[in-house]
Amino acid sequence: FASDLSLKYVYVMEIKENSAADLSPVEILVGDQLCAINGEECIGEPFAKVAELLGKDPSKNLRFRLFRGTKQELLAAVGREDYVATTARVTAMVKSGDGFEEVTVEAAAGSNMRDILVDGGVQVYKVQSGRFTNCNGKQLCGTCIVDVVEGAEYTNSKSIDEAGFLRKMPERYRLSCCAAVYGDVKLKTLPDTGKKFIEFS
Questions:
Q1: Gap between the Cα atoms of 45 and 33, Å rounded
Q2: Within a 10 A sphere around the Cβ of 57, how many other Cβ atoms?
C-alpha cells in the first residue's frame, strides 16, 4: 500500500506475484483505493492509522473493501467531499515572556510550512532575516527548525537530506522550509537544538 502526498487516501501500490492479493478470486489492481479493513472504514485516514488497523489483530485474516477509480471519484461516490482538505491551519507556539503565545495562520493545503509562518508574521529564525543569517527558504542553511507537537501526520515525510540534517535531534523536529502542510498542525518555533547561533542586530 501507499498514500498520496498528504499521507492519507491509501491505495494499492504493488501486487506481488503469488501473494494473497495476486491469488484472490476477486481481481485487485494497482491503484485501487482502500476503503475499509475488516469492516472499519479508513477513507481519508492518515497512513499511520491504516497501518494500525492492518496490524490490529495478527491472528485474523484481513478483509478489504476497495474502490476502483481515482480519489476524487471515490469521494464523489461516497459523498464525503469533506475529506478533501482545502486549507491548512498552522498554530505556532511562540515564546512570550515565561510562556507561549499561540498564533494561528491559515493557507491552502499543501503550502510550505516556512512560507505559511513567515507570511503570518511568525519568526522562525533565531537571527533576523538577511543575507548572512539564513537562506530565505532555499533549504540550504538549516536554521528554520520547528518542533511539530501535533499533526505531524498532516505533513509530508522527511527527505533523506532533511532527515540526515536532523538525525541528532528529536523526531518531531522539522526544517520548516522542507515541510508541506495538509491539515491542522501545532508547533513550537525556535526549539532547543543544541546548536549555538550568533545573534545579529
A1: 12
A2: 10
- Distant-in-sequence, close-in-space partners of 58: CB < 8 Å, separation ≥ 6: none
Residue 154 CA to residue 156 CA, distance in Å, equals: 7
What is the DSSP secondary structure assignment for residue 56, as one 8-state letter?
Answer: S
Strand, coil or helix: 102? strand
125 residue type, one letter: Y
Judge if pTM exceeds 0.85. no
- The dotted CATH code for 87-189 is 3.10.20.30
CA–CA gap between residue 135 and residue 188 (Å, rounded): 21
Average pLDDT of the chain, as a whole number: 83
Cell (9 digits) for 198: 550568533
Q: How many CA atoms lie within 13 A of 148 on its CB side?
A: 27
98 pLDDT band (50/70/90 cuts)?
A: confident
The answer to whether 108 and 3 are in contact (CB under 8 A) is no
Query: Cell numbers 518542533 correspond to what residue?
Result: 147
Pairing of strands 33-37, 111-112: unpaired
In percent, the amount of the chain with pLDDT more than 90 equals 30
Share of the chain above pLDDT 70, in %: 88
CA angle 76, 8, 47 (to 5 degrees): 140
> Who has greater pLDDT, 8 or 151?
151
